[in-house]
What we know:
By secondary structure, this protein is α+β, with helices and mostly antiparallel strands. The protein is 38% helix and 24% strand. It has a five-stranded antiparallel β-sheet with strand order 4-5-6-7-8. Strand 1 (3-7) and strand 2 form a beta hairpin.
Amino acid sequence: MTTIRIAKNTLHTNPGGCFDMKDGNEIEKRIAKLYVLQARISHMIGCLADSGEINPELGASAVITEVAEAIYVNEYKDFVENYSLWKLEFDHTKYTIPAFIAESPDWEDISWHNDVCPRFLNCELGLELFIAADKEIDRESDMEYRFSLHSVSITQDNYIGNWLSNVGECETEEELIALLDRLR
């Protein structure tokens, strides 16, 4: 928890230190103000935890509550409420994962930041699917097609063993559905 002590022209924060709010430089003043905000937020969390209520209509609490809501909605809501590993690893504005893959219990999102694009695994079929960016200009590799499907061996604990072969590549979701239908 951040604590604040006030003296003439200075704010003493712990953690943080001593900040000259009259003659100090602008960066130090901004840092001090963020420590004040952090202390206020800690106080609000403590009040909420102790009594179950904060009056969000009063002063700074209203502004802080609005800012917290805006940060959540703009930066976290989609990730939390529509959690997908690929969204954490890749720029979600550049990729469209077909619903029949993303929502299927048969396809597991195994994306990893060292991959060039989102990757999904179907253990039952022994298939690994790489999904490149929607626009060719955004693709990080020399992937000619948006969808690249590979046959892989699956270990007993449902991990990828060895890459076996390239099953097929295609550009559209319709082509991917047709390719998968032929394999079933």
